[in-house]
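Record 1 of the preview.
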Amino acid sequence: MAAFEFVALDHKGKQRKGVLEADSARQVRQQLRDKSWMPLSVEVTEAKSANNPMGKMFKRSIATKDLALLTRQMATLIGSGLPIEEALKATADQNEKKRIKSMMLDIRARVLEGHSLAAALNEFDYAFPKLYRSTVAAGEHAGHLDTVLNRLADYTESSQEAQAKIKMAATYPVILLFVAIGIVVGLLTYVVPDIVDVFVKNGQELPGLTKFMIGASEFLQNYGFAMLIVLVIAAFAFMRAMKKPAFQRKVHHLLLNLPFFGKMVKGFSTARYASTLAILNSSGVPLVESMRIAGKVINNVVIKERLEISSQQVSEGGSLYQSLDQTKVFPPMMLHMIASGEVSGELDQMLERTAANQERDLQNTVTTIVGLFEPVMLLSMAAIVILIIAAIMLPIVQMSKMLG
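->
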């Protein structure tokens, strides 16, 4: 069976859209006629074109919150004893987004054809990351798919929650920054020239601060738009250059060496690596394979290369603690907890604990930075506005003294 998207007219002449399962488009049309609906168009779902390599280029990944929701639903249904194909059907029926619904039905069709769930998910690698698919494969192999799906749901939900907190914390400062820039540009472009022009026409000698503001205002009026174009072109050029491995590596290496930002990059990378490694290893994926998969979720190229060397060392018989210590990326506390887990045989629990501690520290750091950014931005804006007001008021004070 395959999933088909249809457009039809019901018995009242109202247009209806949806997704149906059938062996062919002809069967879908017959199902619609049985409901007294007139089929207008019946097409195989876009998920079906996932086999086409060119089609994958235009596919969008699933949002983290949607992935967490459907994973939790599948874990609950499979845990209650429902067969996998029925759980997939129920999950598809529950989802209101047509794209995700058709994809889940297409996955169900592959399961009905005899494929495993992990093999079916591999056809949709643009939607399900390598971590997700490998964990599902390990769960199927061990016979604990519901437990593994629950762990994946917890992991995805916690990731989505952390991302949401950071976005919400950063929204207000970003808005404040744009408002501040808009106000300052508006004052320099429209307000300052009109007011100061009065003193210039009277032939009054202007103070140095006022002359500086006039120069800044004239510069923005003459070259502001050109500067904006240059910034946009520079941003596009940088994004294009980042696609080249050599340039990307240089930038990532530079980020790691920055005084404060480098520590943040290392913290995010190590927390993500530890949490990914924990869920993979606890789900039954071999340690070396878990390390290789976890290394792929890291964005920084330099750290990723060092972690690849670590996985190679472990495959040759080295310990996890020693191989990670040589990367010079992980903090001492994480390394000591990992070493303790290796010795005690509780590596999974230690990885989960150290990842949770690292993520909590990072969230606290981000919250502190965002909290400091707001008053700093307000004070900076206030200082600039005061300077503009002073540049306007100084000629007025001089004129009053002359008249006096």
